[in-house]
Amino acid sequence: MMNNETKMPIVLIGNSFKYEIEAVCKLFFHTARFLFAESVEDAGKGEHILAEVKTAGECIELTAEVRLGDSQTLKKTKLMPSESSKNDTEHELCRLLFNILSELTGIVPPWGLMTGIRPVKKFTELISEGKSRDEIKEILTAKYQLLPEKFDLAYAAALNQLPILEKIDRRAVSLYVSIPFCPTRCSYCSFVSHSMDSAVKLMPDYIKALCRELEIVGRIVKETDTKIDTIYFGGGTPTSISADDLRCIMETVAANFDLDNIREYSVEAGRPDTITEEKLRVIKELGAGRISVNPQTLNDDVLRVIGRQHTGTDALKAFELARKIGFTNINTDLIAGLPTETAESFRHTLDTIMELSPESITVHTLTIKRSAELFSENSRDMKNPAAEMVDYSISRLMSSGYLPYYMYRQKNTVDNLENVGYAKKGYESYYNIFIMDETQTILGTGCAASTKLVYPDGKINRIHNYKYPYEYIRRFDELMDKKQEVEECLKKIRSIPQK
User: Fold this and answer.
1) Do 390 and 359 belong to one domain?
2) Whether residues 287 and 299 fall in one domain
3) Measured between alpha carbons, how far is residue 301 from residues 309, 314, 329, 386 in Å?
4) CB-based contacts of 372: which residues, under 8 Å, 6+ apart?
5) 160 and 286 share a domain?
6) Is residue 110 part of a domain?
7) Is residue 498 included in any domain, yes or no?
């Protein structure tokens, strides 16, 4: 069987379903690489995956075939009416392939064929249509073959989201501020973040450019009479910069945006080794009421393996310091499936964090990205106790009054699992819900930030800032030329009737 340094051929004949076919394959081979061919001959005599669509009389014939190793080969076909839509044809071809791969590998992906990033949206849409729980379960389990426990989790998240989504102000927007720096780079991470050692020379120019962009966006917001609903500082680790730089950025936000009526202001304090009393006081003084302290694990051995320079005790002290400063809305992030983490040590981490009684806890599942250091150290079939950890977190948190309120899934996630935010009632993050549901415009500022423009007709357009700090700084004027579209969108948003 191929390792992650070689590429498995995917042969597409009579169709262009490249994205979804590859997504199904990744459910079974998390870290595999693929190449696409137009015939089995082009793929060679070894392992391959075939997905074919052809006309057979008055029907459409679908064929899926998988060859693994030297002798494991399985082929399935299905006939569909000739008038079948492209989407239905694609879905049924993926289903054939899914069932073959499940049979050959023995893997049963818990989310079945539901490969999208935002599974909860399918649930909220059906609930909004008036469908009952039983009807929704019948529809989604039949179509996607998801397991009952994942249906229950997503349905619960949808029920907790809906009251907030019903109150969404689509005439308002949210603001995202990117501070893409970290003390060091964690071995599992592929986000666009830069260690402070390499970024220190860029810092003054980056802060200046970011503040200038905030001034420009603030002017557009004021001139279009647009309300700011939520603000979110992310990264990277926003608290990796100095207290003075953090103050400079937050004062620029306060000077250029009306903060009197915002519903939520969050700052990812993030890594415990960057959290100081001075920085926390700046954050609180300048209006942010929600912060995130993210230990990921309290296991010191695991922290060393992933490249963190703090201990579990440091994380607990950072949380206690935030409480001392007066923060009453604290989130903590944990990751299930970190290298060398055991199910027992994960349970210890979660139980210890829950003793602190944070207002929300987000449980991520390890995702191996192409650019992450860990990717090169694993075969395409990763073994990991993440599923046991996630199952424990679901039962433990929900039985203790933490309700799932937002969820997203990523490619290459261990065991095809999910990332879930849990919160005590009334402490759900509006920003997290809005970004997942895609029903409110989000204005992104800073390096690698993305602006998501949601037009009155539901159309979404994204404008991406430059990915790297030096490029963001050097090409700043070019980037600002794109703000014209932001202004035009905000003017159209004003036409949406108020509820």
Assistant:
1) yes
2) yes
3) 11, 14, 29, 17
4) 187, 188, 189, 190
5) no
6) no
7) no
Which three-class secondary structure string do you get for 424-440? CCCCCCHHHHHHHHCCC
256 and 145 share one domain: no
User: Does residue 192 contact residue 182 with C-beta atoms inside 8 Å?
Assistant: no
DSSP for 245-313?
HHHHHHHHHHHHS--TT-SEEEEEEE-GGG--HHHHHHHHHTT--EEEEEEE---HHHHHHHT--S-HH
Q: Is 388 helix (H, G, I), strand (E, B) or coil?
A: helix
Angle between helices 243-256 and 203-223 (to 10 degrees): 10
- The first and second tokens of residue 194, run together, are 């830069």
Give the total number of structural domains in the chain: 3
Note whether 229 and 298 are same-domain residues: yes
Same domain, 208 and 224: yes
Same domain assignment for residues 160 and 182: no
Digitized pLDDT (tens) for each residue of the chain, 499 residues in all: 444 457 889 999 999 999 999 999 989 987 788 999 888 787 667 889 999 999 998 999 999 999 998 778 999 999 999 999 999 999 999 999 999 999 999 999 999 999 889 999 999 999 999 999 999 999 999 999 999 999 999 999 999 999 999 999 989 999 999 999 887 666 666 554 555 556 678 889 999 999 999 999 999 999 999 999 999 999 889 999 999 999 999 999 999 999 999 999 999 998 899 999 999 999 999 999 999 999 999 999 999 998 888 999 999 999 999 999 999 999 999 999 999 999 999 999 999 999 999 999 999 999 876 434 554 444 444 567 999 999 999 999 999 999 999 999 987 788 889 999 999 999 999 999 999 999 999 999 999 999 999 999 999 999 999 998 999 999 999 988 889 999 999 999 988 887 6
Distance, in Å, from the CA atom of 415 to the CA atom of 384, rounded to the nearest integer, reads 8
Q: What is the DSSP string of 12-39?
A: EES---HHHHHHHHHHH-TT-EEEEESS
Q: Please state, in angstroms and rounded to a whole number, the distance separating the CA atoms of residues 250 and 257.
A: 10
Type of residue at 320: E
List the domain range (segments joined by +) for residue 178: 165-489
**Alpha-carbon gap, residue 416 to 365, rounded angstroms:** 9
Percent helix, strand, coil in the chain, to 5, is 45, 25, 35
